[in-house]
Design brief:
CATH class of the largest domain: Alpha Beta
Helix content: 40-55%
Order of helices and strands: EHEEHHHHEEHHEHHEHEE
Strand content: 15-25%
Radius of gyration: 22 Å
CATH superfamily of the largest domain: K homology (KH) domain
Number of helices: 10
Shape: globular
Structural class: alpha+beta
Number of strands: 9
Distance between the termini: 51 Å
Number of domains: 3
């Protein structure tokens, strides 16, 4: 069975047929994601199908493929809500989720779990097993799922041959999965989430470390500074790094007139304007 990405479904069918060395009419396929042209250049999605030669018996049942589609649709549903740009309440709610993503200073204490007979180690194992069950419905090759719970935060590591498919182009599926995990774990266990898939988060953190070097130099020289607009998880990675570097300064996320987010660094008794 082949997973195929293409700008349109027609191109995906042709590409799958070429890779499987058969005609399009001999394909047995399932559409995992329909293409979307986007809006003014934003939120564009490519077509994704899972295909096999109809004459080859696959070790994947139709029910398993259907479950795969259902799970991926649940992940992508969160992101697809961004296509409804007029629904500002959705965007406000999603920004609130992101704003609390790295807020690990809000402790409810390990004692709260111990009172319920659940310690952090047991909670981590419980979440790990539930997450493994969720990912088992995908036809992706994911062989590593590890969960640790520290300081009121679930540290989740996922890896495998198809880990890149969970990240998605430009990290769009990584963001969607992060939202889904946060909504689940914060609602049920009052936990925050840090998700690492392969080395995606590590690479993003390294990229941000290099990106904010001029900002750090500006703050050290003039006492204040701000970043350029940042998207999604990058805002919060930069926020976390800058707060560690400048613990005695005011470091916060601001929203510009266009809705873009950036970080300001200043003394506590002054303000910096966009």
């Amino acid at each position: 069975m082949k997973k195929v990405h293409a700008p349109t479904l027609e191109e995906a069918y042709k590409k799958a047929a070429k890779e499987l060395e058969c005609s399009v009419t001999e394909l047995k396929y399932e559409v995992i994601q329909h293409p979307f042209k986007g809006f003014m250049g934003f939120f564009k999605k490519e077509a994704i199908i899972v295909a096999a030669h109809s004459q080859i018996k696959e070790d994947v049942s139709p029910a398993a493929v259907q479950n795969t589609s259902a799970v991926i649709e649940q992940i992508d549903l969160i992101l697809s809500e961004e296509e409804v740009l007029a629904d500002k309440s959705v965007l406000v709610e999603k920004n609130a989720v992101l704003d609390s993503f790295f807020d690990v200073d809000r402790h409810i204490g390990e004692e709260a779990y111990e009172e319920e007979g659940i310690v952090y180690e047991e909670l981590a194992l419980l979440i790990e097993n539930q997450l493994k069950e969720l990912l088992s419905y995908l036809c992706f090759d994911i062989d590593v799922v590890e969960v640790d719970v520290r300081d009121n935060t679930a540290l989740i590591f996922i890896d495998g041959e198809d880990a890149a498919l969970l990240i998605g182009k430009e990290g769009y599926r990584y963001n969607a999965l992060s939202y889904m995990l946060f909504n689940w774990l914060h609602t049920k266990y009052e936990l925050f989430v840090k998700l690492e898939i392969a080395e995606f988060l590590t690479s993003q953190e390294e990229m941000i470390r290099n990106y904010i070097k001029p900002v750090i130099e500006s703050v050290e020289k003039f006492g204040k500074g701000k970043t350029r607009p940042l998207d999604g998880i990058l805002v919060h990675i930069a926020l976390e790094q800058l707060r560690k570097i400048f613990p005695d300064k005011y470091v916060a996320v601001k929203t510009g007139k266009s809705g873009s987010k950036f970080i300001v660094i200043n003394d506590f008794n002054t303000k910096i304007h966009a």
